[in-house]
Amino acid sequence: MRIPTAIKLHKASKTLELEYAPDERYVLSAEFLRVHSPSAEVQGHGNPVLQHGKLGVGLERIEPAGQYALKLCFDDGHDSGLFTWEYLEQLALNQEQLWNDYLAELHRQGKSRDPAESVVKLML
Questions:
Q1: Which residue among 1, 53, 90, 99 has its CA within the 20 to 30 Å range from the CA of 107?
Q2: What's this model's pTM, rounded to 2 decimal places?
Q3: pLDDT digits (tens, 9 = 90+) for 47-74
Q4: 20 CB neighbour count, 10 Å cutoff
């Protein structure tokens, strides 16, 4: 398990930057983090619930959770689930594959990243 040497919340770009070494830095979008939240709401107690309509979600703040994790507070009200150092590193290292898998699952289920499209489909 590695702990980042620097953690930066960039509200304007809606990203979280994790630095592990001067030449090892990862930038994770708030949307990516939100749809991969380790919370029971998202992980569904072993049966993950596809998150959709999260395009544009941001991070309001980050809070330490002991010495082992971060609590991420999103501007859509989601703030449950603790992102352990190990989980954050796995998200960072596997970001491209996880994102591609997420986009494929959205497509397969006929869902959208755009919250406006989710509302329109519900109204139809």
A1: 90
A2: 0.92
A3: 899 999 999 999 999 999 999 999 999 9
A4: 15
DSSP string across 3-50: --SEEEEETTTTEEEEEEETTEEEEEEHHHHHHT--SHHHHGGGS---
32 pLDDT tier (thresholds 50, 70, 90):
very high
Matching residue, tokens 């002991």: 66
15 dihedral zone (left: phi>0; alpha: psi -120 to 50; beta): beta
Q: What angle do CA 108, 44, 72 make, to 5 degrees?
A: 100
Give residue 95's domain range: 6-123
Q: How many domains are contained in the chain?
A: 1
What DSSP state is assigned to residue 87?
Answer: H
Please report whether residue 49 resides in a domain: yes
Nearest-10 crossing angle of helices 85-93, 95-109 = 80
